Amino acid sequence: MENRVVITGLGIWSSIGTSLGEVTESLREGRSGIGLDPERRELGYISALTGIVKRPELKGALDRRKRLCLPQQGEYAYMATAEAMRSFDACVWAHHGAFCPGPTFDAAFGLMHALAKAAGIYASVRAMSGGEPPFSIPDEGLRGIAEAYRLPVNEAFLS
User: What is the rounded distance in angstroms from the CA atom of residue 39 to the CA atom of residue 45?
Assistant: First the structure.
């Protein structure tokens, strides 16, 4: 069986770029995000070599109180999530949780509930098949399901 991975939404903030476009370009051009950080020497590290990650500028995006309470890794997660949310209705962090906004609590909770149920069904079916992906729905099948439920199809996700 052919292995396929589908990423339905992606936000990224890293040493080789601060958006999906920048990271893609860096990977294609073979650019590295590794550099020398003099502060590491001052702190006593053996090597000053490290991934250089630009610190996000959150003024204007978050108020002062939120910026003060947010750890550095939270700043990166915030920026990556904001990028993903520009294109998608939900953001799922593998093994960490999800972000599902909505105009009301019921709408947001409903989306989260649907995501959790879908993940549970997928995990159960995969467990019953010995850990292998049990089936693949062809593109025309997905289009048919979407049409039956009057849902839009994101053609970028289809082969």
Answer: 9
